[in-house]
Model the fold of this input.
Amino acid sequence: MKFKDYPISKLLVEQLDVLGYKKPTDIQFKAIKPILEGEDVMAVAQTGTGKTAAFVIPVLDKILKEKEKGRKGIQCLVMVPTRELAKQIASVFRDIGAKTKVKTFGLFGGVEQEQQIRTLENGIDVLVTTPGRMFDLISQGFIDVSSAKFLVLDEADLMLDLGFNKDIQDIIFRLPKNRQTLFFTATIDKKIKSLAYKIVRDAIRIQISPKNPVSKNIDHAVAFVEMDDKRFFLENLIKEYPDFQFIVFARTKVRVERVVEAMKRVGVSSEALHGSVEQKDRFAILDRFRNGENKVLITTDVACRGIDIPTVDYVVNYDVPDNPENYVHRCGRTGRGNKHGQAISFCSPEEKVLIEAIEAYTGDEIEQYTLTLEEYKQILADSEDVTYNWQKLIDQSNKEFGKENEW
Ligand code: AMP
Done:
């Protein structure tokens, strides 16, 4: 099946070709047709599978047809848990709809309202938003969703984790009853199911790779490394692949900053992204990473979902995540769409239990990357971080000692 075989606007088919989308991914194959036919959809799909385009393509097509009939007002409301995701999904709508006149707006808090209000007043077709700012502007009378024929909830599981359950219920009352609801979640449990069944009607259920949620495009392995040696292994890996783009996940903001410093000491430039970085700086950091100005992004789980940068070659779990779901999301930052990616986790002895929990969650053993003692020592010895590299200091002082004793 190719995109041109779908009964969708030529403007979309041509643009998909420009974007290099040759054939639908699994989730697109399963979701596009029912959405075009007006069905509600509930999809459990991991990140990186092409799930955004799975709803963007049919929604855009339907909006185009509605616009031809002269319909006005917000036609589609997409609710997402984070600002990064709002920005990103809005850009997918704009990219795929580039040849159309459909207007998409990504709305989120943390920035001035004036400009946002002006954009809303000029009229938009698709609103992609986080709940906070949307309710704020609804209460001020700048947003009216009563004309929206589509509700998309993306990353619904994270919406629940972040406490947006009530917001979701509240927005339902403002939307028309005869809408189409598309519900996307990366994971499924009782709470998600109960939320889904409250808002979708006779939904088509789609589940992608239920067995092992780490995409099959990603080779992922674990290397056993002492906690204090992790930085040498990271340095070694980055220097081995100087042209690669890396996302490195550490457990806390403080650790992120420390890893950035450690990399600086050995001549590896990188940037930190975490919850204490201001919103505007976050976007700038992501832009620099996206356009390849920066090749190493060191971050906390704030970036483990939603970020879609197709050029990421390698994910490094500098610290093993303590939530197995986040392992799946972190790995999903590489191997996007039909591409191939690699991920490695540096696991210290105390983190072995976390690896076991991940294996229980994914139902699969993670491949072990084994190193001989010699190889391990060599990685430490190769480090350019002389201040911390005791092996190198010992070697150097041995050499100097040797020299001093030369006559
Ligand atoms: P998502 O799971 O929506 O975050 O998408 C993951 C990545 O897959 C994005 O970089 C998309 O641009 C890419 N993608 C989506 N659909 C296709 C397709 N049919 N062919 C190739 N790449 C795609």
Summary: The chain has two domains: 3-207, 218-406. The longest strand covers residues 218-224. DSSP finds 16 helices and 14 strands in the chain. Confidence is low (pLDDT under 50) at residues 403-407.
